[in-house]
């Protein structure tokens, strides 16, 4: 038997208008919300999406647009967004454009034709302004992991991790352990996040009177086209800095794909980590916890980022733009592990 809102109204003693308000995500009394949700679960009510779309022109669909679905890194964020919107009776679809700007435009155009109620988008860098196409179609969009370079002309809601603070965390840890000969691997073209991590790291040393001009390896920044290329580049950079006349005592990997590449090269050293060189990384990875030694890093709270992005997007869908454009920074988590050698003991 098909359950209708009339059945829910009869069971709860509420009007069909109140039930309809709830189903269309409008504000109702808290006690009514609790009663309706309990009744929906008990009756196993499933809304007729086709009828809803015809009535409201809403599809009750949310799209997540990522640079690359070939990596597991964003899985917890996708899960967080999906879990949030399922609770609000939305369907969530996830798609990717594989770091290809031409494909990105096509994917966005396809999304717009499907008329999602909102989009959560990860641009390939801070010069990527294709989010404007979504805005121009009247669809709310939340940007992840970047602040667009033309933010002032084309504002958007943005959520990032505390990239500056995370870089500073790692710098303070290395400095407390006596490391002043540092190499930073890797930079990227038009990457707001990586530049913020590097800036936070270098500012700690500058504030303590150290010259940081030698920290950045003298190689051009690269576009982050795909994870395999970046991982291979991490290997190359590691070998280059360790074969220099004055190799660093510590290396800062600016993201996990570079870190994985550097770690694979580090295992070829005649002396293990951290005896030969200390390593820290922005981002965590399951491998970093179980390797020997485990890798000191800061991790992003992707679950919280997903939740905050979802909360903002749902408010925009409901027409609340009171705080637009919002810029949200989510705290990172420092993990002190075993990949940093304490040089202060040797010098004491």
Shape: elongated
The total of beta strands comes to 11
From N to C, what is the helix and strand string?
HHHHEHEHEHEEHEHHEHEHEHEEH
CATH fold category name of the largest domain? Rossmann fold
Model regions low in confidence, pLDDT < 50 over at least 5 residues = none
The major beta sheet can be summarized as: 6 strands, parallel
**What helical percentage do the residues reach?**
40-55%
Total individual domains: 3
Spatially, the strands of the biggest sheet line up as: 2-1-3-4-5-10
Roughly what fraction of the amino acids lie in strands?
5-15%
Secondary structure layout:
Layout: H1 5-12, H2 16-23, H3 30-43, H4 49-56, E1 61-66, H5 75-86, E2 91-96, H6 101-114, E3 118-121, H7 131-136, E4 141-144, E5 157-161, H8 163-176, E6 182-185, H9 192-207, H10 227-242, E7 250-253, H11 256-266, E8 278-282, H12 286-290, E9 296-300, H13 302-317, E10 327-330, E11 332-335, H14 343-347
Parallel strand pairs: 1-2, 1-3, 3-4, 4-5, 5-10, 6-7, 7-8, 8-9
Antiparallel strand pairs: 9-11
Helix pairs in contact: 1-2, 1-3, 5-13, 8-9, 10-11
Give a quick set of tags describing it:
single chain; 348 residues; alpha/beta; Rossmann fold; 3 domains; six-stranded parallel β-sheet; five-stranded mixed β-sheet; 14 helices; 11 strands; 15% strand; elongated
